[in-house]
UniProtKB/TrEMBL annotation:
SUPFAM superfamilies with a match to the protein in the record: Zn-dependent exopeptidases (SSF53187)
Species of the source: Idiomarina seosinensis
Molecular function GO terms recorded: metallocarboxypeptidase activity; zinc ion binding
InterPro entries given in the database record: Peptidase_M14
Record-linked Pfam families: Peptidase_M14 (PF00246)
CDD domains documented for this protein: M14_REP34-like
Name by which UniProt lists this protein: Peptidase
Domain Peptidase M14: from-to ranges: 31-304
Biological processes per GO annotation: proteolysis
Length: 304
């Protein structure tokens, strides 16, 4: 595929997908790893230390995926609440495994100061099939909106609405991968009937903030903590990351409410989306997971 104008093999160029093209895409998806073994088993191992609840389930392609949330025990309404989400895009492995690693190694330490809520894997079908979309070709991280077309989003939104908590902060764990250019951006353009234009994939960690409430000192604190674990991405020759102008080294921002991104899920004062680069020759899977943990820890240290 051409780096900048890759043509996707499904559909007719210039024509948005209909149901036939979506069905053709879905038929090509296969299970590549186990949500039960790699995620649910790790959640089960945390039940003695934390409150684990099933908040819903997804039923896709004759498979059932129970959805879980992990919460600190001894909930105290006087303590600030912090939300951590992972696996909004199921293919972004360290978002899921980093959330679980944070719960396993760090969550208890901060439970005296915070009520913490962790959704480690919002999109388990995407995790198993290594996909950005759900089976309906819907991107969950553009679907945190009223009457969401993505079940993954609607179930989380419903749970949090019933929980009735005002969160102080929300950290959403993501990755930017080489497959964004080789697969997911070309697929998106084909679905929309548009011409694909890829961006430069940054080598390193960066953050995406809310352009309408950036909270730069908070973002800097997160980046500083992460820099102890892995390298921060430099801007490209146009002083951009993934096509967006940098606000500062390692930080870009978007109007997240307008785009329906996950960090618009609450009215939290402090929000950020992490972006780890797992394809870097300078990073390992373990380093990527620990960079996600460091991002959450950096946020909590700032808020203490």
């Amino acid at each position: 595929m051409n780096d900048k104008t890759a043509i996707y093999p499904i559909g007719t160029q210039g024509k948005p997908w209909g149901e036939q093209e979506k069905a053709e895409w879905l038929a090509q998806q296969t299970k590549k790893r186990s949500y039960q073994e790699q995620v649910v088993a790790k959640i089960d191992a945390l039940k003695d230390r934390f409150q684990v609840e099933q908040y819903g389930e997804l039923n896709y392609q004759d498979a059932t995926f129970p959805l879980f949330v992990i919460k600190t025990k001894n909930w105290d309404e006087e303590k600030p609440a912090v939300l951590v989400t992972g696996g909004v895009h199921g293919y972004e492995t360290s978002g899921v495994q980093g959330a679980l690693l944070f719960a396993e190694e760090q969550m208890q330490e901060y439970s005296d100061d915070f009520n913490i809520v962790v959704f480690p894997c919002l999109s388990p079908w995407g995790y198993e099939t290594i996909n950005r979309w759900n089976p309906d070709t819907v991107d969950p991280n553009r679907s945190f909106i009223q009457d969401s077309p993505a079940q993954e989003c609607a179930l989380v939104m419903s749970y949090l609405d019933q929980l009735g908590v005002d969160f102080l902060a929300h950290i959403d764990l993501h990755e930017t991968t080489d497959t964004d250019n080789s697969e997911f951006r070309p697929a998106k353009a084909a679905r929309e009937g548009e011409v694909n234009t890829n961006w430069n994939i940054p080598d390193g960690f960066y953050l995406v903030g809310n352009s309408e409430n950036l909270q730069q000192e908070f973002q800097i604190a997160v980046l500083e903590e992460v820099s102890e674990v892995t390298h921060i991405a430099d801007a490209d020759e146009e002083d951009k990351l993934i096509g967006a102008p940098v606000d500062l080294h390692g930080l870009i921002s978007f109007p997240v409410n307008q785009l329906g991104l996950c960090i618009s899920l609450t009215n939290a004062m402090y929000t950020t989306t992490t972006e780890v680069y797992p394809d870097s020759p300078k990073a390992t899977p373990e380093e990527c997971n620990r960079a996600q943990v460091a991002a959450v820890v950096g946020a909590l240290k700032f808020l203490q």
